[in-house]
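Hello,

Our lab assistant flagged a job as stuck in the queue for most of the afternoon. It eventually completed. Since we weren't sure the result was trustworthy after the delay, we are filing this so someone can double-check. Below is the sequence as submitted and the structure that was eventually returned. Let us know if re-running is recommended.
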Amino acid sequence: MAIQKNESNSVIEVKNLVKRYKKADKNAVDDISFDIKKGEFFAFLGPNGAGKTTTISILTTTLNKTSGDVKIAGYDLEKENKFVRQRIGIIFQNPSLDLNLTAEENIRLHSSLYGLYNFRPFYKFMPNAYKDRVNYLAEIIGLKDELFKEVKSFSGGMKRKLEIIRSLIHRPEVLFLDEPSTGLDPVSRNDLWKYLKTVRNEDGTTIFLTTHYLEEAEEADNVCIINHGKIISFGTPNQLKQNLVEEIITIDADNRDALRSELNKLNLEYKEENGFKVKYNNDITPFRIIKSIETPLTTMDIHEPSLEDTYIKLIGMKKEEIK
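-- returned structure --
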């Protein structure tokens, strides 16, 4: 009987996922649930030992779960893992390339292992569909001139480009990125995200990211933060920031008494600390605050909270403080 794919707007569905390793006294992943929509950019964050790597290992079929239900692209992770593997791409923290092969040979071997094309000993014997896909991705990613060079001569950034091509050759519905920027210089990191954004826009690929570079998650559609095996926060970057981190404009004046008097008359919430730190929000914007003050200012600095601010605050909170 043929297996029918279940139609759903979610490309990843995780319900009550649990993983406990043998001889462990607590769960590494402790009853977590989340959904990821098709085409979404999803960031999965957490400190070392939080359960992040365990979760992504389960989702990419390299580790068995203890309990719970997981579906990837409509297929049950446990019963239909072959179909799951055909629909995901993975870029690991450490490159897994054969350095003695050319870039194209690495791609060709990978595509044959996925059952996309029968392996043929030379590129010229491969079907046109394969050649078109490889050349298209190499053009976008910026590796066309190095396609037939041995990988052992590649820089770290070039190896990452090759891994992107290899992971996308079979048009996966989900691309898992496990610390993809580790070891890359700032220029290569920037290029990596430029290429990924292009491919995502072209093919509608869902991105599942784990990273310690929190600025990479700023543009995510949703962010999930895990600690001690449990999800401690979930939402858009803006939602997380607004819920946990104060938006502050710092102002100061030579005549602090006059400035303090104005802030009180305007009923603005502030604290004195190297000037006046005034809270703002969507209703009381920095522009409105500055426009309302007549006292000549000597200092004005707007602090827009980052995802990193939010993350640090969340990870530092005690369990009973997290709602």
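-- support follow-up --
The delay was a queue issue, not a problem with the job. The result is valid. The chain has ten helices and 14 strands. The longest strand covers residues 10-19.
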